[in-house]
Amino acid sequence: MKQKPPTFASKLVSSALIALFWFQSVNVFGWGNEGHEYVNRVAAEKIPAEMPRFFRHAVAELSYLGPEPDRWRSPSEYALKNAQEPDHYIDLERVAWLDPLPPGRYEFYRKLYEKRAATAAADHPDDYLPEHVGLQPYITMEIFGRLKAAFREYRHLREVHQPTAPVEHAIVFYAGWLGHYVADGSQPLHTTIHYNGWVGPNPKGYTTEHGIHAKFESTYLAQNITAKDFAKFVHTPERLANPFADYVKYLRDSNRQVENVYAIEKAGGFNGKGSAEAFDFTTHRLAAGSQMLLDFWYTAWLDSATSTEFAPGSTAAPPIK
Ligand SMILES: [Zn+2]
Questions:
Q1: How far is the CA of 190 from the centre of ligand 1 (A)?
Q2: Which alpha helices (DSSP H) does the chain contain, by range?
Q3: pLDDT at 60 over 90
Q4: How far is the CA of 10 from the centre of ligand 1 (A)?
Q5: How far, in Å, from the CA of 239 to the mean position of ligand 1?
Q6: Can you tell me the distance from the alpha carbon of 101 to that of 310, in angstroms, rounded to the nearest whole number?
Q7: What's the gap in Å between 2 CA and the centre of ligand 1?
């Protein structure tokens, strides 16, 4: 059926509704603008001298890119919003049976669809749809891969004395974009089914209202914490021996902190100026995000010097479709 063209008044109302919805969704997801900028900036300010100078000088760009994927959530870009929303989280409780997580996105999808097919209708099989479980570690590793490939190209262009400015722009973009998801991973509520109110058995009486997520990561943080409050907890980077396994461990560590968020909220720790416990907890979570991001950047740089073109064990180039 063809729709009638909208009147001016209905256009006005729908624009207002879109703006309101967008504003609300931005406020419900991510560390909030401030948290994402801080995590990227603190990591950028600790880039070691052995990494390229252009990268160490990109603090402003890297900070700006921290919230970038949250700018992709407007209904006015529906396909984009729809495609990338599951990238921001993973409900680890839903995949407790899948350890270790498979290293590739499509292997993960296959396991989830098998689980869904084997789940009785009464047990909510759609909970196992990939877009309901979330794809956090996969988007993170995919951007890490892009960054490593770009650093490899940068090294090559320098070797052959070609201009490097274009690849430098690509590197800064990938590195900043990566920071968004790594920071999301340090926010415990991005790793859990309890992402915005406790669900299921609740013997300790934690809040079930859909307000704790934004209260913690946006309202409380914006009013009480700055980058310098946690920069001191971030040290020189370490090379990750196994980036995917190390990142999943980081997400599991974050998931173990979920109950702390609820306990602090229950004690009123995120109200107004907040409690000392809330400050300590939040600054250490943000620092964990910056540290992981810095370790990823450093590892991508070092690994780009030695990484082979093909998967380990393969001898020939895979066919390209
Ligand atoms: Zn996010």
A1: 8
A2: 8-28, 32-45, 53-56, 59-65, 78-84, 105-117, 130-133, 136-159, 165-186, 212-214, 221-224, 228-231, 243-255, 258-266, 276-306
A3: yes
A4: 32
A5: 25
A6: 22
A7: 36
Ligand 1 centroid to residue 297 C-alpha, Å: 19
pLDDT band at 5 (very low <50, low <70, confident <90, very high): very low
Mean pLDDT of 165-172: 98
**Whether the predicted pLDDT of 284 surpasses 80:** yes
CA distance 84 to 25: 13
Of 110, 106, 105, 192, the closest CA to residue 140 belongs to: 105
Structure tokens, 145: 């891969």
Digit-coded pLDDT (tens) for 187-197: 999 999 999 99
Torsion (CA) 49, 54, 58, 62 in degrees, nearest 10: -90
The angle that helices 243-255 and 276-306 make with each other, rounded to 10 degrees, is 170
Task: Calculate how far, in angstroms, residue 128's C-alpha sits from the geometric centre of ligand 1.
Answer: 21
Contact (CB, 8 A) for 62 and 175: yes
